[in-house]
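thread: overnight batch results

M.L. [08:02]
morning all. the overnight job finished for the chain we discussed friday. pasting input first so we're all looking at the same thing
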Amino acid sequence: MLYMRLYISAFIFVLVASFAPHIRAAEMGIAVVVNEDAISYSDLNDRYRLILASSRIPDSPQVRQRLMPQIVGSLIEEQLKFQEAARNDVDVSQEEINNGFATIAQQNGLEPDQFQQALEQSGINIETMYRQIRSQLMWSKVVSKRLRPQVNVSESDIDTVLNRLKDNVGSYEYLASEIYLPIEKPSEEEQVRDLARNLSLDMQAGKVPFFRIAQQFSKAPGAPQGGDLGWVQAGQLSRELDDVLVTLEPEQVSNPIRSLGGYHILLVRQKRQISEDNMPDRDQIATSLGMERLERLQQRLLLDLKSSAFIEDRLVAPE
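M.L. [08:03]
and the structure it wrote out:
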């Protein structure tokens, strides 16, 4: 049976004394129009502060320049998710949002009121975290309502996976994570490449944690889980990724990998030989296949929403 899973991103609070993003324009001015809704400069500023605190990336003019396009893209996607939820009569209660917030607080070893106070003391608008939580909850309900009925895993599908695993007994498999930064138009090539390179270098140096960068920046289906791909065998990924995956050792982060759609960064968390003892059972395979297919469907839906949306960028170029 296929279950819808919701993952709330852990924050792991870091005190940030000063951000000073210096975004040019009035705080409440409109930065981006998304269909009938708007994203303000204040929204961008709040999200920037949250990302720096949660990812531990140090503030600088260069960091702002690299991150702002990604922040804009994330807020546009969130707005599209809210709009799709409204079209499908999907909503979440404040209690559900509070429960999500309490989960994040617990992951940080704090009570909700303590966590809220810590955020406020760091100058972080709590509403921007509520927005992230609300977006995840609403999108999860939309996916479950619209797409889950389309997912079917047959006994033949399960047999195919089992037979492949049996044929590869003795070979290595990798518990891997992925960050994916798409390039949606040619003009984004340099900006996305530079961001991928800088993030990769920072993670390789241990300056920023992989799974928090994945939660904030990756557009891969597993982003909310920190980029988790699960156990992957050679040949399962595209050739570009597969060639790099098999060269990585546990805890090693790859350099950016260019694919047809953008840049990928891989992390191998563990490596083991496939054996009869560690093979998943049929139910586990069915759940895994179902989630993979559901994730592909939701990514396709989001791309369709974006391609059909009216999006007007009013961002003021830096002086």
